């Protein structure tokens, strides 16, 4: 089932505990509001390393084959594996790995970011919550005193310039899923929808 609403959280810090949510007019999932006056204290590379650690040993819980845009405006065969969808009381973390099917391949800036490719991230990777009927985009934030259209950053991995058969670990952080959600749908541009991906719960929030 395809979700109908897309929600983009807005965050000013990498620690999502500082964000609060307010309900939409239709009573749907909230949109996170930024904590004033704070900017990221870690680079995307440091965050990725902290998140993944020994991710190479994790068993995939979902996988798919597809094609991604390369730097020559063609399409390159690729594969993804999802290692975890971890849902907490205030945020949801998606961890996945992107592989080339043979050799080393270049990846277009627009492969996972069609509208603002120069921000060099993977903000077009989305996650669907079947329990609430909502599709979420990753949290976005903005540097202080900068134009929002030009200075946004994503609580997600930086764009991978190349991929190979060893894989590149990637992540994205989203608003909290409905407390009753036991599975999620993962949307990665160029790949089939990954439905019924199991959700792991952390913190005080739990499913039925």
Automatic annotation (TrEMBL):
Keywords noted in UniProt: Signal
Signal sequence segment: 1-25
Name assigned to this protein: Lipoprotein
Native source species: Georgenia thermotolerans
